[in-house]
Each structure stands twice: as C-alpha cells, then as structure tokens.
C-alpha cells in the first residue's frame, strides 16, 4: 500500500456544482478501485492524498495530473504506508452556498474536518497538516 500527495492549482475557480461533480466522480471511481484519501480545495488551491495499491494509484495520479481542470500539479510524496489513514474517501472545501452540501456523504466544511489521524507517522501527518493549511488556512482561521 502506498500513498501519493500532490498540490495543484485549478485552471479556473471550481463552482459548487463542479466540486459536487468531482466529489461524486471520485467517490464512485475510487470505491471501484479500492482507492481512498482526501482532497482539500479552497480559492483554486488543491491538495490531495490518495492511498491504495501502487499499481492502481500511480496510473491514477498520472491521469489526474493530465486532467484539464487543474495545472501546476506537483507530487510531494509517493511512498509505502503501513495502513490507510483515510479509509472513507472525503473532500473538504468552503462551498459558496452551504445549502445542500452538509448532507453529502464524504463532504466536510474545513472547520468540521476531523484531525489528521494519529495512526500516521509523524512525518506523514506533518505533510498532511502542511498541505491542508496551505489550502484551507490554519485551523480556526476564518475565511477571507
Ligand atoms: C483535483 C482532481 C482530483 C481528482 N481525483 C480523482 C480521484 O481521486 N479519483 C478518480 O478516479 N478521479 C479523480 N479525478 C478525475 C480524473 O482526473 C479523471 O477525470 C477521472 O478519473 C475520469 O477519467 P476517465 O475519463 O478516463 O474515466 C480528479 C480530478 C481532479 C481535477
């Protein structure tokens, strides 16, 4: 089992509808391939962690990095892990309209996001916290 962490920039700001469609697509396709992880999005900034078998997530990452919805994709990590840290696929972002999002499975408002799992190694948890803060801001920091 490996995980890959990358950051990128949306080519144009993703609307609530775009994010909803991406959430649906990821939940469906990742479940089929036993891929889990988490995606952070805010103001065009994206960070994602995907975890699963390397022969699955490496080609998936290649596909994601060619997706025209974002650019400047930089892979920060690709390494073996002992166990999954995000067994339920999830996404965290600030929707423009909160209405309708709260009920979506796998969706979190940044303030409601559970803490990074303590089962992760300190180094891995640090990376996840760094990319999360880079995208969503420090915990408790209100949105500009
Ligand atoms: C920011 C971002 C994250 C994505 N994450 C995933 C993902 O976790 N799993 C996935 O299957 N597709 C993900 N995609 C979508 C893929 O890039 C691609 O559109 C999708 O796998 C459908 O590919 P296909 O047309 O070859 O079936 C993501 C796209 C973007 C822009």
Fold and architecture overview:
The protein is 31% helix and 28% strand. It has 144 residues and is α/β, with parallel strands linked by helices. The chain has a single domain (2-136), classed as 2-Layer Sandwich (Alpha-Beta Plaits). A hairpin with a 2-residue loop joins strand 2 and strand 3 (45-52). The chain starts with a strand and ends in an 8-residue tail after the last helix. The site of flavin mononucleotide has 15 residues, from helix 1, strand 3 and helix 2.
Please give a quick description of this structure.
It contains three helices and six strands; from the N terminus they run βαββαβββα. It has 144 residues and is an alpha/beta fold.
How do the strands of the widest beta sheet line up side by side?
4-1-3-2-5-6
Biggest sheet character:
6 strands, mixed
CATH architecture annotation name? 2-Layer Sandwich
Which small molecules are bound?
A: flavin mononucleotide
- CATH fold annotation: Alpha-Beta Plaits
Low-confidence runs of at least 5 consecutive residues: none
Number of strands: 6
State the share of residues found in helices, binned by percent.
Answer: 25-40%
CATH class, please? Alpha Beta
- SSE pattern: EHEEHEEEH
Number of domains: 1
Features:
alpha/beta, Alpha-Beta Plaits, 3 helices, globular, binds flavin mononucleotide
List the helices and strands and how they pair.
Layout (H helix, E strand, L loop, with lengths): L1 E9 L5 H17 L3 E7 L2 E8 L1 H12 L4 E11 L9 E4 L13 E2 L13 H15 L8
Parallel strand pairs: 2-5, 5-6
Antiparallel strand pairs: 1-3, 1-4, 2-3
């Amino acid at each position: 089992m490996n995980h890959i962490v990358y950051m990128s920039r949306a080519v144009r700001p993703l609307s609530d509808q775009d994010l909803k469609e991406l959430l649906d697509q990821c939940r469906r396709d990742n479940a089929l391939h036993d891929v889990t992880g988490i995606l952070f999005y805010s103001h065009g900034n994206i960070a994602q962690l995907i975890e699963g078998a390397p022969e699955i997530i490496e080609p998936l990452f290649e596909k994601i990095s060619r997706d025209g919805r974002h650019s400047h994709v930089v892979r920060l990590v690709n390494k073996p892990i002992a166990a999954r840290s995000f067994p339920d696929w999830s996404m965290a972002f600030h929707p423009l309209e909160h209405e309708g999002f709260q009920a979506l499975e796998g969706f979190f408002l940044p303030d409601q996001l559970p803490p990074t799992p303590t089962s992760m190694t300190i180094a891995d948890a640090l990376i996840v916290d760094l990319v999360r803060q880079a995208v969503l801001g420090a915990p408790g920091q209100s949105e500009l």
